[in-house]
Design goal:
By secondary structure, the protein is α+β, with helices and mostly antiparallel strands. It has 35 helices and 33 strands. It starts with a helix and ends with a helix.
Amino acid sequence: MKQQVWERAAAMPFGELMFECPSYHLMFINHRGEREEMTDESRRLSDIRPFAAIFKFVERVGVPPEKRLDQQIAELIECKLDLSEIPLKVEIEDCHQSLQELCHEVVTRRANSSEEDRANYLYRPPMSLSQLPSYLEERYKNKGGILITVLYQSDDRIDDGCNKHTASVPYYQTASFVVRQVLIAKAKKGQGNVHQEDYNSYVLKICGRNEYLISEVPIHQYKFIRLAMIRDESPIVVLQKRLKLKLKECDLPNEAYTPPPLPKKIDIQTKTVWDIEAKYSMEFMYISDMNIGDETSMLRIKACLYHGEEPLCPVVQTNDVKASSPIWHELVKFDIDVADIPRMARLCIALFDKRKSKKARKGDLPIAWVNTMLFDHKGYLKSGDQHLTLWPRKREMEFEINPRGVIGPRPNYERYTDKHDDVDMEKYGTLSIKFLSYGDKIIYPPFHTVLQLAAAYAETELGSFKTNARDQAAIENLIEGDSLKVMSESEKEALWTFRVKCIDVPRSLPKLLQSLKWNRREEVAQMQALLQIWTELQAEDALELLDYKFADKAVREFAVKCLRKLNDDDLFQYLLQLTQALKYEPYLDCALSRFLLERALLSRRIGHFFFWYLRAEMHDDAVIIRFSMLLDAYLRSNQSHMKILQRQCDALKQMAILNEEMKEYLDENAVKDKLERYNILRNKLEDPKFKSSLCDFYCPLAPTCKAGNLIIHHCKIMDSKMKPLLLEFENASDQFSLGDRASRKYGEPILIMYKKGDDLRQDALTLQIFKIMENIWQEGGLDLRMIPYGTMPTGKETGLIEIVQNSFTLANIHKEIYGNTSGALRKDTLHTWMKKKNKDSGNFRRAIQEFRSSCAAYCVATYILGVGDRHSDNIMIKENGQLFHIDFGHFLGNFKYKFGIKRERVPFILTPDFVYIVKNDRDDNNTELSRFTDVCEKAFMLIREKGNMFINLFSMMVSAGIPELSSIRDIRYLLETLKLSSHEAEALRSFQGKYNDAVRNGWKATLNWVIHNNAKDN
């Protein structure tokens, strides 16, 4: 636009007085009514959302690069913090400096690494480093190798004939071995000479993705190859020159960076809390800027000191005051010595409305809360006035006081979006309190002092306890219990008494931590000493230590230390939970934040999902400070990736605008006809505003797949209430193949659904758990052919869903074959449809096996997770026979009811038509049904072996705010399905009973489908 204006302006009077075009930038009024300067002129006008189509050319006066970067980051994460009014200002500034130092060190290390390491940072595909299952090893020994199809370029094109080579490769060979074979084959075809140095000049790329097989590892360790082996398919790769690897995308360290000054040494004369001989006291003063209650309302404050989930003392409360004048100036004393307060103690405060009106509910009604740490981030006991903005109480909160809630008051910020929380928190006001001063700068004792106390305590008490066989058995039973088990006081005392014996059983650490009394400094010191010699846990066991009930800094650092041995693929498996665990950290700068940031900077794939997991929750005031700081640190150190992420965000904004415009038009005009809907959408997508912006970006669901131009005639708007968009893009990841036959054959198009108005976090969690289950089954020798399709929440009630190609709902299959009613009732409907889609007898046999395997997987998975609302529109089948479930709006036993009757009449879906396929059209084929039953039982027991890990993963997600996962009570459903407190044989018998119930009463689900098909005629 600038260039066009400049060309016309040059021909006008005084045109010769203008400077060169680059000497000016554009200024405009944004959608918030503020002046904004265009710092990035590569962005589209539709992306910046000007208030009106009026722009002003302003002469550049030299915007500092750092300021320009600040603005770009603030726009990308849609938030800019105002440090001037934040109580945590000093902590934020210290954390920013610390994260900047970490990022500089990691980026410098990355820049100085080998070429292979830098290539792996950008292009490394997912790996499967576990040992090859024996059944695969045997299969490919008999076959002689994996058949790999290698495409290679000639004049920037792929030709199906001469430029394709199929190599038989032993599974233990490397990618470089495949390269040598292909180059030798090329030479034999007369397509060039082969020299030894050529072998290192080429690399294999996964077709359709920006992923390269670079590492010198057995090819079966690449997950792409492993999956092809499991499915008995021929993987397709592309031979490319190494020169095409754009290693310059690895950002270099900031040359202007200056290291922070050395921290001041703590004066050894500084008084510690252990020197104070007094009960802990504080003063509640008043609430300002509050607008709640009526003339009958009386306000009361209750408060308690907590360490994680454990109260350190009884609850204290204030006198009642009128809501119209909420002033207390009341000193309260907690029943705990200052010397016994642990380092991570927090003050949890709740505000109650004590109503006396006859019309209102009598009693104390909790209405607001706030939590704050007793020590600051440097370890000093807080003193003086504190002003804490109150948070509103939400219905789903378990307790009157909210120790699980975020630490600190509501932040002050400027949003770069119209998104906001539904609750107006301003009316709850700001609570002013005063921490008493016990002297000048009281600090928590340094670590060596803690160890000295532990040593003295050990000398006097530790050696006097011995265990007998009965004690040892009791301890082992305690340790083996599930992670949700609440120990009695006597059990806690027994475990703590024999704590030294627990060292020999490292996984006992979570139970031991729950057995000590955190309000006794001698026990806390002893636990700190034990941690120094504790053996590292397995990563899946260490996850439990990041739950909110484990608040101690040293414990959480120990957990992170255990996680450091995870490779990128295993870390990615738990990344969703680890980002949620950040909400339980008491301070901004913590071991978990630094660990995740470091790993994000060392893997572009981890960095991509780290960015989106954080950015998707930036509408939540509870995390906005912590998440914005981590996002700022990541983007500031990864500016090449920031441009890619900005392009994704711009595309998503256009999807949101398109979805809103389409939904508004269709609703206002009551458009029902599908062809008319299609034509309206097509005309919209032909608009240059959308056509030019919805292209050329890496897909957030699959960050190595580049979306090219829209395939407009394949796009559509769905019929459901929120009118989601189904968009199909050309795959531009292999640029040389765009537009020719090979691109259509080898480069799979990218299909995504953009959905606005539904919370996709529960779907994302369910599908993540499905992926973990599938990995466990594959390692256990079961290939159950699940389809845990991608789902990515991108903001509040918005997100993307991967579309599985060539798949159909049961409802549509019923209608196509025999009609809505007969199709659901007849047991041969699906069998007939599969035969129709797989006319070749070999393909049909494979389709039957695909169905059996995938059906077993989803029977077990949906039963364990208690997935509800299963009907014929959220169960789908691919043409190749794979069955899969979609839409997970209800889980953990939250089943739907109609007129007081539970819709789910069976533990899981195993209807007569499913059984008919399992038996392959033979009612007397009990052999196949018996095999299917055995597979289900084995799959169940494999998951049960990892039961505690699944409990931990769900526990870490309680902070996410998912409606059906709001408390630990919800997770107890898993204890019931997995029977973790029972013996293996008893658990298996329980599952067998549920399985028999599902088969016996499958007709009840069929009846539900008949009703659903006719009510929702597709």
